[in-house]
Write a structure and sequence with these properties.
The chain is mainly α and about 210 residues long. Helices cover about 70% and strands about 0% of the residues.
Length: about 210
């Protein structure tokens, strides 16, 4: 008997797969690309402005707590223009407070003594910028005021201006030699002399080991 071979399904030819259609994403127009880049740049600028606003705010608060109202006012004013509305509102309020504190007394300051006394008051409050302004005004009205020069030397030293501090102290000593002894006994001048070598030499020319 003849044997017939069976054809299995495994040997049957497979049907060809239909090609998969690839959907192409719509291309952005030049205007859309430009708009997206502009939006990204705007976000980056806003983020940078917010960081600067917060930095100015924090520094202004620190200066305000130290009663350095003139410097604080400038930074509060800058912070008031930042993107964070709640920070801007508070900064404007604090700037107004600083303005009132640095606007000077109600009476007009006319004489050298007026400006000197107010400068001393501001110096004691550590409102250095305002103090220096009024002390300089007093000195312009009384150029040989040794007490003004002495106080201005201290003010400049506290402001970090060592060169001006030395110059004013030298002038004060030249007009009144006793000012050297007074400066040596002043705790604030002693502290400044540790930070400013030139000032130390002005205070102790005969005995460098005095401090």
């Amino acid at each position: 008997m003849a044997i017939t071979k069976k054809t299995t399904s495994a040997s049957a030819p497979k049907p060809a797969k239909a090609p998969v259609a690839v959907r192409e994403l719509p291309k952005k127009s030049a205007a859309e690309v430009k708009a997206a880049a502009a939006a990204e740049a705007a976000v980056s600028q806003t983020r940078a402005a917010l960081q600067l606003q917060m930095k100015n705010w924090e520094k202004a608060v620190q200066l305000f707590s130290q009663k350095q109202f003139a410097q604080a006012r400038n930074l509060f004013t800058e912070a008031s223009g930042g993107p964070a509305a709640h920070i801007a509102d508070k900064a404007r309020s604090y700037a107004q407070i600083c303005e009132r504190k640095t606007s000077g007394p109600a009476v007009n300051l006319q004489t050298a003594d007026d400006h000197f006394n107010y400068g001393v008051e501001r110096l004691n409050a550590r409102d250095i910028d305002v103090a220096r302004h009024h002390l300089n005004t007093a000195l312009s009205l009384e150029p040989n005021g040794e007490h003004i020069l002495f106080t201005l030397a201290l003010c400049c030293g506290l402001a970090g201006d060592g060169a001006a501090s030395c110059e004013y102290l030298k002038r004060a000593i030249a007009l009144e030699p006793r000012n050297r002894i007074l400066a040596r006994q002043d705790p604030e001048f002693i502290a400044l002399a540790q930070q400013i070598p030139a000032l130390r030499s002005v205070l102790t020319p005969e005995n460098p080991e005095a401090f």
